[in-house]
Amino acid sequence: MSQRGPVLAGLALSEDERDQLERWVRRWKSAQDLALRSRIVLECATGVSNSEVSRRVQVSLPMVRKWRSRFLERRLDGLVDELRPGRPALISVDLVEQVVVDTLESTPANASHWSRAKMAEKSGLSRSTIGRIWKAFGLKPHLEEGFKLSNDPLFTEKVYDIVGLYLNPPESAVVLSVDEKSRVQVLARSQPAFPMLPGTPERRTHDYLRHGTTSLFAALNIQDGTVISSVHRRYRSIEFKKFLQKIDQTVPEHLDVHVVCDNYSTHKHPSVTNWLHRHHPRFHMHFTPTYSSWINEVERLFAEVTRDLLQRSDHRSVQALEKDLRNWVKAWNENPQPFIWTKTAEDILDSIARYLKRINDAGY
Fold first, then answer.
1. Residues 188, 316: contact at Cβ < 8 Å?
2. Residue 312: which domain range?
3. Tell me: the pLDDT tens digits for 36-87?
4. What's this model's pTM, rounded to 2 decimal places?
5. Exposed/middle/buried for 64, CB within 10 Å: 0-12, 13-18, 19+?
6. Same domain, 69 and 178
7. CB-based contacts of 290: which residues, under 8 Å, 6+ apart?
8. Do the domain assignments include residue 138?
9. For the chain, how many structural domains are there in total?
10. Which of 22, 57, 82 is the last residue of a domain?
11. Which of 224, 210, 107, 245 is nearest to 174 (CA)?
12. Among 170, 259, 300, 360, which is most exposed with the fewest C-beta within 10 angstroms?
């Protein structure tokens, strides 16, 4: 029987090439594109077909063909991103790798992170070259993000429970994502803002006077995007129970109420628990895992409030801020925009597992 498809050119690796490719794969968190290309070449070197490599590495068949061909033509140098037309490249692959490794695995003296100037001084390259290398590998030393992994022993069960409510809300029920935006500061700028002009942004003073705080309680209907809200000066269990009572009065009587909220102590206070017991089985509480506010959709609503209203806040009294908060919610409900949840529980758990594997493989 004749062989289907073209005959593949043999791809053999020298010992040095294999060692280098395996090093790039081990550093795949540092250079994901380069690590993926190295994995493709290593699989091609086993002698299997392009389609089998595509299946093993989980990439498209054209991608396998591309990097097999590039490696056969230019060996290791072929796996590095091609430069734009111009003078020949003067930077070796080893030097590029060293910059990436240094960026990720070391810090400069007397500094918490690398800058272009400091890395240029260390490597002997220009600042613009350092910038291009960082851009090619998706490195941004000047940025940081906060995180905290959940230590909740029921993390998986709670993720399945809450995501199940988002993706498949129960019939004859309303699902509400509930939380408080607590201690919203009433800030009065020390001077009036200068208005925006052509070519000049709006200008505000950096200093301000504080005139107290207030808290916004919100319940986001995950199906239609409408919001039930209250404004209270404090955010104790007393205020939370009052808010539950408002929800009870607002939601039509024939609907059950599923409340998604975090593990804050006021949400589990005995007075709240007793109230929920008296309103069973209409009210159902679903608590998010610890350190997992990202799973509570109402946090997305609070981000909108912050961007639209609070980020440039200039209020002279608590009453003025509370009035604007109520008006903002009223305007939102005139044209509500639900936030569509798309990830399944399996997607979330797989993503966390991949992240943990990355940091473990990197030696953290």
1. yes
2. 155-195+204-345
3. 888 888 888 887 888 888 888 888 888 888 888 888 887 887 777 654 555 5
4. 0.65
5. buried
6. no
7. 150, 151, 152, 263
8. no
9. 2
10. 82
11. 224
12. 360
